[in-house]
Specification:
The protein is of the alpha+beta class and 70 residues long. Helix content is 39%, strand content 30%. It is elongated. The termini are close together.
């Protein structure tokens, strides 16, 4: 499901105890939201490639946003 369904967007924007991790490349992008102190992953998702040399800026941006919005 969408990251924002697991954690409210307001909390994501304002809670300093949350961190977002993004790992992207030529095959896919993974996004995770975790609690800073416990390092517990609260939500995660994946989407298509984000390497701008492989797929171009627009597709890479779309795929990153897709991963965040899932």
């Amino acid at each position: 499901g969408r990251l924002s369904k697991v954690i409210s967007p307001k909390r994501i924007e304002s809670d300093p105890s949350l961190v977002i991790g993004i790992d992207g490349g030529g095959s896919h992008v993974s996004v995770a939201i975790a609690e800073r102190t416990t390092q517990t992953i609260l939500a995660q998702s994946t989407a298509g490639p984000v390497n701008i040399r492989s797929v171009g800026f627009e597709t890479a941006t779309k795929n990153l946003l897709d991963a965040i919005e899932k």
